[in-house]
Give the backbone structure.
Amino acid sequence: MTRRRLVAILLAWQFLQEFIPFYAVYALFFADHGLSDAQISLLFIVWSVVAIGSEIPSGAWADTVPRRRLLALASVLFGGCFACWALVPNIVGFATGFVLWGLSGALSSGTFQALAYDELTACVGAEEAQPWFARVIGWGSSLSLVAVTVAMALATPLLAVGGYALVAWTSVAIPVVQLALVLILPETPRTLTAAAAADLAEDDALPVPAVGVPLPGTAPPTARSDGPAAHGFVQPFRQWWTTLRSGLRIAVTDRVIRGAVLAGAGLMGLSALDEYFGLLLRDQGASLAAIPLLLALVSAAQAAAGLCVERVSAWSSGRLAGVVAVAALCLGAGALVHHPIGVVGVAAGYGLITLAILVSQVRQQRVTPTKVRATVTSVSGAGSEGLAVLVYAAYGLGSGAVGLAGVTLGIAVLLLLVSPVFARLIPDRRATD
């Protein structure tokens, strides 16, 4: 497959992942069906707990079996979430939908980044993989947020024409299109390098394949493979278990990779506050019809951040920490303004947080070995979901006492305090060369 076609598919997948009109109004949908702020927070906690429990095992699975299959399954579960909400609009249906969404996110998060980095490596070479991955992730983030912006703007006429039901079923249709796209996504068989073979040799749970031979479960159907078909259930389970142990060991013991994992997890976890932006705007006086358009400003700021990733990825860790600090100040200022105009500060702060997250993801992929790429990425994802649970709990418990604005301000202060720690954790640009 040509580089141009590969990049187009990777960008289109990211666009469709976020082109969901329901994103703009689902918290309001829950509230209008009788759920309190605390119950909505409980749903978000269910979502995160499912994601945490399945994130790391699914990452090891993605390092063991063809990643394209997992992305296809993720698309099916994603569409099932919104269908469940439309068909069963009560707390049981909402919770079931979040379970499906949590599983889908766990299957796709580490899987997509790992597949994208390895396919770009196969297409453009190892030396060019990092800048091209930065472009794909940066451009993809911008396209994704353009998708969010358009989808949120689209939510307004959809609400006017068909109410919540039309928004929901439009959102169900998008993952179906995404599934069709996944089916044409390539996957080059992953081969074992000399360094990876030496690493795996430390674990006796599975015989180590020869250097340069496709790893079990990753060879094309026409190729001869010592994968799951040849050894039944035991062999792929051992391969999965070995990969899981190896990925966890590297994520915990390698200083550079551990820092990348912690930096990404911390920023992603604290960024979970965006789930409450719609409710925050309503508290600040915005109307239901205006909220999707105001939230589109937040998405536009994130899209602008994505366009800067390739250049900013060369910045020092200290400058990136400064980005996080400025983001915290903007976010706090936006929360303090008891008027919808506060969305300007919220948008600026969240856009800068997005920029820092994307740069940390690029550097993490650069320093992570191919054989455990999805597993290590999933470790970071699980950590972010764990922190997100605390964010949801803070909103659920604190909104009644200090309001949504007060909780948002508290998280902004926390971001400001931890920004120097971020500078020490994220791999410096020299470590990624």
